[in-house]
Specification:
Elements (H helix, E strand, L loop, with lengths): L4 H11 L6 E4 L2 H11 L4 E6 L9 E3 L6 E4 L2 E4 L2 H11 L3 E3 L8 E2 L2 E6 L3 E12 L4 E7 L6 H7 L4 E6 L7 H10 L4 H20 L2 E12 L4 E3 L3 E4 L6
Antiparallel strand pairs: 1-8, 2-5, 2-8, 3-4, 3-6, 6-7, 9-10, 9-12, 10-11, 12-13, 12-14
Helix pairs in contact: 2-3, 5-6
Bound molecules: adenosine-5'-diphosphate (ADP) and magnesium ion.
């Protein structure tokens, strides 16, 4: 079972995993008032569908099939832009690399405070059935297709394993942060985040948590800028 980005981020927020402020909307009017209430000059207007690759996707009119807009995640810097992007997204078909050619009709939107991005990383927690343990994968090449990174530069992907019955220890978390070239408060911020993510993963019976991109912001803090969370089919949650 998959949930939307805004729902995954609400779990993150509750658990203390740093995310931007954001508002879930289903109408253009709500999107405009969300922009005003967030009080951030720059916001991201984000289509909510159960598939990734939204940023590079295209929106089409349901009836005419005409292209309405390129990009299902747009950065807006005025009320007018938010209004325009929200109208171009809601009620339209978003086709991405992951949706297949029929795409998905967008009826949910997330308006999120703009993040000042110093660097984009990739992070995922998953179950390694062969090793009978949990696996965390991180890469300095974020915001791009991880399959591509795995093919072209597998050395750029760093891995640590941990036993779910023991939880993630700070030493493993620290070694991953160091492998990603993080130091100082960025390193500590990631170690802290990894502890919280591994607790979420275990407590909520997740099958995957993927954060692409995980961002280092201008202040050096690590922020989950995208969030994909899937649950075990048999999870009680
Ligand atoms: P998808 O993976 O479906 O394309 P993302 O949430 O990863 O969607 O967004 C695509 C890109 O948009 C990100 O890699 C990031 O560069 C940018 N982005 C997303 N959210 C924000 C935000 N709140 N502020 C600034 N840029 C953002
Ligand atoms: Mg993404």
């Amino acid at each position: 079972m998959n949930i939307h980005e805004y729902q995954a981020k609400s779990i993150f927020r509750e658990s203390g995993v740093q995310v931007q402020e954001g508002v879930h909307c289903t109408t253009v009017e709500q999107a405009v008032s969300a922009y005003e209430s967030l009080g951030s000059d720059i916001v991201a207007v984000k289509s909510q569908i159960h598939a990734g690759g939204r940023g590079k996707g295209n929106l089409f009119n349901l009836d005419s099939g005409e292209l309405v807009m390129q990009g299902g995640v747009k950065v807006a810097s005025s009320k007018e832009e938010v209004e325009k992007f929200a109208s171009n997204i809601l009620g339209h078909r978003l086709v991405t690399k992951q949706t297949g050619p029929t795409g998905k009709v967008v009826s949910n939107l997330y308006i999120e405070s703009g993040c000042n991005i110093a660097h984009e990383y990739y992070l995922a927690l998953l179950v390694d059935r062969e090793e009978d343990s949990l696996l965390i994968m991180g890469s300095t090449e974020g915001g791009v297709d991880i399959e591509e990174v795995a093919e072209t530069s597998p050395d750029a992907i760093h891995k640590v394993w941990f036993d779910p019955s023991k939880g993630l220890d700070d030493r493993s978390a620290s070694s991953l942060a160091t492998s990603l070239g993080l130091s100082g408060n960025s390193h500590d911020s990631l170690v802290n985040m990894l502890g919280k993510l591994s607790s979420i993963f275990i407590d909520k019976d997740c099958s995957m948590i993927e954060i692409n991109p995980l961002v280092r912001n201008g202040e050096g803090a690590m922020v989950a800028l995208d969030a994909k969370v899937s649950f075990d089919e048999n999870a009680a949650f």
